[in-house]
Amino acid sequence: MANTKEIKDRIHSIEDTMKITNAMYMISSSKMKRAKKELAATMPYFFRIRGELTRILRHVPDVKHPLFDLRGDIPKEQRKVGIIVITGDKGLAGAYNHNVLKKAEEMMEQPGIYKLFVLGIVGRMYFSKKDVDVDDDPNFLYTVQKPTLHQARVIAERILDDFQKGDLDEIQVIYSELENAVTVETKTEQLLPLKKSSFDASKLPPDLYHEEISMKPSPQEVLSYVLPNYITGMIYGILVESYTSENNSRMMAMESSTNNAKDMLKDLEIEFNRARQAAITQEITEVIGGARAQKRK
Length: 297
Hints:
Layout: H1 4-59, E1 80-86, H2 96-108, E2 113-119, H3 121-127, H4 149-165, E3 170-178, E4 184-192, H5 219-296
Parallel strand pairs: 1-2, 1-3
Antiparallel strand pairs: 3-4
């Protein structure tokens, strides 16, 4: 059994660690609430854009645009696929980063020529040690902390340019979505090419107003203006969703660590009381033994 001094040192160490985990829990909670507020303030605009795209395709379903080009004539083995992988900038978030990296590796096992666009320091450090094609453009090395519309717009411009030039035939994004307060799900979504079937009117808010539309100078020109904004909105929503999921995962991990620390403190307090009681009993025994020895003299 450890002596009382060793047990006290362990108790103080665990209490200091618990202060850190509590602080990280509060910080992550604040960041998550702020991100949700910003997303709620901006997403109605992009819902409106999606609604307009749905109406355009309902009126002119056969309209052609390069961003709707599925390039079905390219075999799977020769398709150039870009994957935007969104990880965190740091750990201590449970399985958040691991699940995203695992999903990316599983996708790259499928037929195709892959190129990674990695957001987040954890993902960049991980794939830098792997034999994979990772985009090293310094303009694309973004942090995932505090996502902004400007950041989403620059990313959208880059991938749109690569897709339209033919450098990429398909663009997927791997991110995390907060299902509820305790569940974070890793998801894959195709950004490009866009699928007309995905613009379903039933997915729009029921109170969205519908009226007759007139597209000038042409539906193609209207789409050329609206679609990039729609892609920017999708990317921004995904960035904020991942940021929210990361902070929620960190909250859960820190809460679990704090609870484990409390359990350890309870066990150590019991052990400390036993050690102290044993020391007191030992001292009493030594005093009694000394008194008996004196009487024998």
